[in-house]
Amino acid sequence: MKSIKKYLGIVWLLLAPIIIYLLIQGALDNINLAGKKDINNPVIWIIIIAIFTPIAVGLMIFGWYAFKNEYSHLPESSKEIED
Amino acid sequence: MKQAPQKIWKVITASSVGTMIEWYDFYIFGMLAKTISIQFFPEGNPTAALLSTLAVFAAGFIVRPFGALFFGRLGDLIGRKYTFLLTLVLMGGSTFLIGFVPGYKTIGMAAPALVLILRLIQGLALGGEYGGAATYVAEHAPENKRGLYTSWIQTTATLGLFVALTVILLVKLNMSDIDFNAEWGGWRYPFWISILLVLISIYIRLKMKESPLFIKLKEEKKTSLNPLKESFSNKNNFKMVLLALFGAVMGQGVIWYTGQFYAQNFLETKCNIEFEQSRTILLWAIAFATPFFIFFGWLSDKIGRKWIMLLGMLLGILTFRPIFGTFLKNSSTQNLVIIAENPVLQTTSFLFPDSITTTKTKVVFNNGMGAVQLKSDTTSSLDFVDSNIPQSRSAIIYTDKQLSNSMYWKFVGLVFLLIFYVTMAYGPIAAFLVELFPTKIRYTSMSLPYHIGNGVFGGMVPFIGLLLTTTFPSDPLVGLWYPIGIAALCFVIGLIYLQNKIDKNVND
């Protein structure tokens, strides 16, 4: 289990840039100032990309921590967290 | 943390009623979005359209997580009680005031600008409320009943939806559409009603005491000086924030949103079921499913939180497409025979070179389903010239479908299943989050992943659904791949990285 946790970390690390790429590609494909749907609206895409980029970076950090075996042992008490 | 039974129920009631009212306030705006956009955000005005977009998207996606950070920090600095009292006042006040903003016709651009500001305050307040309420109840609860007691907080989002649906339905059924949608019409009543609910809740909450664990920390001068820094720059805590988000709340958020909002929207817009039935189906399903929040909260105290939450996600992953496929199939008019019809209106319009005759007919099919048939016959005068015979093209659509009694209850059962999954994924999650973080930064640390999971991942369900439907138009269920994919990712992360251990001591 420890090595599954570790090597899946690489998957999470790689997944994050893929998500950002798909979002940017989705924006480029669908933004249309003449369109009336939500997916044609550039403001919505800007909000979504702005809010999802830090989340995707969070997923990368999660993957990095997993790869560094940070999740092989979860804290038993708050003392372990605060240390 | 032992409390007298009477006192703990006061704590639960004071917290749950206020949180439910906040959800009610947040939902009525979304449910009345169509009327609100007519009154405040008229079509054809690009500035109003921009403000409308911000009101819908920024309030959920940006302001909710920001509210979680702002009020979470405040809750860890000055205490739980005054912070979630403040969020209640802000939410109730802004909701009440939305009901008093004159329409665009009367005050022009000031109307959408005011509504946007009030909507952003709503989002901010909601971001701060949940973490406070869940923390407050959990810090009063004994270790073997933390899941049970916090599950009452978990019922509030669904009950807020229930109350919002009921109030809107009652107001709408007691007046004409014209009276409801007028500038000072019935759509404002749900906003005004909010102030009564909020005043009652403020009165109850004012009488409550601060969380005993927070008082203890304060007396020992151990409260956090900088909760944001301690939550997110301390690696040991930050990695737990990430685990909470990607291993639990992200999946729970999409299961929640799909089971309640997406389902109702799907019944109304894809299955074309009429307004009243599409809402009462959801109301019945919520009424039957809500007790299961308490049941799974209780069960999580016995067997742990992890497997219950993950099973809720797994059931959603496996059955979303079959369930929504059944909605489509059973509301389809294909292969049905009309056994009764009653024409109600016929209009003809001319748009050179075409003349379009629209016939509105109430019909009943052989399976007992009723509907309104809209038939348009287009006759082109150019076609007539070309061939000497008038060329007529017909198009028939069915709207306002009324399901037969047996089919209605079948749909109630299926929506019940969707909300049942919500109760599994969502019921134990407050206790799970509380146990993950230390007291002095608990409010901040649990609020952010909760609102990213629910506000951002859950709130994206309709947008990504529309994106997928536009990209792959041949599959009417393609929009479900987003919640299924997110829930599946979260399921795998939760399965591998989460522990099923119940933290006995949350006093530290």
Tell me the layout of helices and strands.
The complex is a heterodimer of chains A (83) and B (508).
Chain A: H1 2-30, H2 42-67, H3 78-82
Helix pairs in contact in A: 1-2
Chain B: H1 5-31, H2 33-40, H3 46-78, H4 80-98, H5 104-107, H6 110-138, H7 146-173, H8 177-181, H9 189-206, H10 212-219, H11 227-232, H12 235-269, H13 275-289, H14 291-303, H15 306-330, E1 338-351, E2 354-365, E3 370-380, H16 381-387, E4 391-402, H17 405-426, H18 429-436, H19 442-458, H20 461-471, H21 481-497
Antiparallel strand pairs in B: 1-2, 2-3, 3-4
Helix pairs in contact in B: 1-4, 1-6, 1-7, 1-9, 3-4, 3-6, 3-19, 4-6, 4-9, 6-7, 6-19, 7-13, 7-14, 7-18, 12-13, 12-15, 12-17, 12-19, 12-21, 13-17, 14-17, 15-17, 15-21
Percent of residues in helices of chain A comes to over 70%
H/E topology pattern of chain A: HHH
Principal-axis shape of chain B:
globular
How many individual helices of chain A? 3
CATH homologous superfamily assignment of the largest domain in chain B: MFS general substrate transporter like domains
Euclidean distance between termini CA atoms of chain A: 26 Å
User: N-to-C SSE series of chain B?
Assistant: HHHHHHHHHHHHHHHEEEHEHHHHH
- The unreliable regions of chain A are none
How many strand units of chain A? 0
CA radius of gyration of chain A is 18 Å
- The secondary structure category of chain B is alpha+beta
CATH topology of the largest domain in chain B: Growth Hormone, Chain: A
